[in-house]
Specification:
membrane, transmembrane helix, ABC-2 type transport system permease protein, globular, 73% helix, mainly alpha, 0% strand, transmembrane, 329 residues
């Protein structure tokens, strides 16, 4: 196997300086943000971490797609009719042996954001390149902003490719194209998933600013992910006690994973009409039928705002800490 030549720090810094001067101009008031985004994005898409995580998502996506397609075919064979919203069932359908694609994305997608951000700042410090970057015609805020934007761009491309690939294979297996309502719901699902993964990216960048070692930053990020993914529900059940619907529901919504799960269930299942406790009068007065896509978006608006707010808070804290940090050569 051929060994790739190692890029020397001096050559890398010269290339970054040329990109910054070409993209922003030394005398035009540019910040060098475009140069940082291009460099970080190139590192993300060519790194082994990205390739391993994408391969893991692809394998789980193909397994979930095959299980969902088999379930849909069995249902069609029994009833001799195409189920309603059959294309959405490719993403939400599962079996006792294998969960649906949405469950895998909920559990594994945060690792993508963590992998892209856990060494964003501390890795540069350990390689002693951060002070050299700031010595170039690049503003300090362009460094932290460029790392976050490059991570978001990599997340958007990865999730778009995953959803498009699953949809294309599902179309070939079933031969049923998505309706306009289903297409809009899948687009909304992709946007919401991007926001969800961007939160974990912002959290990982925050830990990379707080801690000096990349291993400590990665451990802190993974600990938060495991806490909310595996242990938070048990703590909520213990704290809620005899009030699992009222207090338990609000405690569960502190978790970003629960907010995301609530939102995707509503988006990908048009039969869901409410996300909170329902009284008997509301049940008797409700109309049967599916919920239009616009009403589903209104229903998940609080969860979406909550995820955006969490992402903004994490990135704002990391931004402030990074701007105030003393960086020496």
């Amino acid at each position: 196997m051929a060994v790739l030549p190692r890029v020397q720090p001096r050559a890398w810094l010269e290339r970054l300086r040329s990109r910054a001067e070409a993209g922003s101009g030394r005398g035009t008031g540019g910040s060098g943000l475009a140069a940082v985004v291009r460099k970080e994005f190139a590192d993300h898409v060519s790194g082994w971490r990205m390739l391993i995580l994408v391969a893991l998502l692809v394998v789980t996506g193909l397994g979930s797609l095959y299980t969902a397609a088999q379930t849909i075919r069995d249902a069609v064979g029994l009833t001799a009719a195409i189920p309603e919203f059959v294309f959405l069932r490719l993403f939400t359908g599962g079996s006792p042996q294998l969960p649906p694609l949405t469950a895998f994305v909920t559990f594994l997608a945060p690792l993508l954001g963590i992998a892209l951000g856990f060494d964003a700042v501390c890795g540069e410090q350990n390689r002693r390149t951060l002070s050299r970057i700031l010595a170039q015609p690049i503003h300090r805020d362009a460094v932290i902003n460029g790392k976050f934007l490059a991570g978001v761009l990599a997340i958007v491309i990865t999730l778009t490719a995953l959803l498009a690939g699953v949809g294309a294979l599902g179309l070939l297996m079933l031969g049923v194209p998505p309706t306009g309502d289903e297409a809009l719901r899948l687009v909304a699902y992709g946007v919401l998933t991007t926001i969800y993964v961007a939160f974990w990216l912002a959290l990982a960048i925050l830990f990379s600013v707080v801690f000096r070692q990349a291993a400590t930053s990665a451990l802190a990020s993974i600990s938060v992910w495991l806490f909310f993914s595996a242990f938070w529900d048990m703590l909520v059940n213990l704290a809620a006690g005899d009030d699992p619907v009222g207090l338990g529901l609000w405690l569960s919504r502190i978790s970003p994973s629960y907010l995301y799960s609530e939102a995707i269930v509503t988006l990908l299942n048009p039969l869901v009409r409410t996300l909170g406790p329902v009284t008997l009068e509301q049940v008797l007065g409700a109309l049967e039928g599916v919920l239009p896509v616009g009403q589903s978006l209104v229903l998940v608006w609080p969860q979406t705002v909550g995820l955006v707010a969490l992402t903004a808070v994490c990135f704002a804290i990391s931004y402030i800490l990074f701007m105030r940090r003393e960086i020496r050569a």
